[in-house]
Amino acid sequence: MQPPDPRKSLYLFASGRKGSGKSRWCRAWFDDYPFDRIVIDPTGDVKRDLDRDGVPYQLVDHDVIPTRFPRGDEGQRVTLVYVPDMGSPTAADDMDRVIGLALDGDDHPVMIWVDEVGSLTTANYTPPNTRRVLHHGRHHGITLLGAAPRPMDIDGLWINQADLVATFSLPNPKDRRRVADNIGADPREFDELVHTECVDHEYLLYVHNDRTLYICPPLPPPRLGVDQHAPVP
Length: 233
What we know:
Blueprint: E1 11-15, H1 22-32, E2 36-40, H2 45-53, E3 58-59, E4 79-82, H3 91-99, E5 110-114, H4 128-136, E6 142-148, H5 157-160, E7 164-167, H6 173-183, H7 187-197, E8 203-207, E9 212-216
Parallel strand pairs: 1-6, 1-7, 2-4, 2-5, 3-4, 5-6
Antiparallel strand pairs: 7-8, 8-9
């Protein structure tokens, strides 16, 4: 199967406990995306990895969030990284304002990577720009990449709207049921595949286009200085 055309909107979602492989999966898609990018990084983990690997980016200041996406020179990709102050009462609104930078036009392809979706949305509340992206982001050329350790704690649209859903180790059966319900899979089959069949950092990939579940091998470790290729079943 050929990799997806990066000029077309793609929604991706990964879930799993810490260390199970979801961040590596997200990083592979991020590295392979050729256009402008936004990273919402509540833990600061992505920023540390990008610093380690020498990936250039612009850090968004908490106090001076721009009102428009800063464009690079012709052909130059811009990557914005925002590490919110999670102790601030406006943390979710601040993250949502940065996400809103991707909504500045229909001809601006951009990837938004939210590394901890549960820091931005809950099962009962999603801020306005994020809600617009979940519902209408494809009209703006947005590729949306989300990750969460607990699917139970987030807006189900992150899963329901995704073209590809990667499920790594999820010890809590309620989390496995949440994913299965949102992709329309048989909960018992999904539970068996994730909890029993996927071992040693394997993961279960749901492909919306063909309504199929695939057991995928572990991703190789990142090669420093070399972009990874996004995983395709």
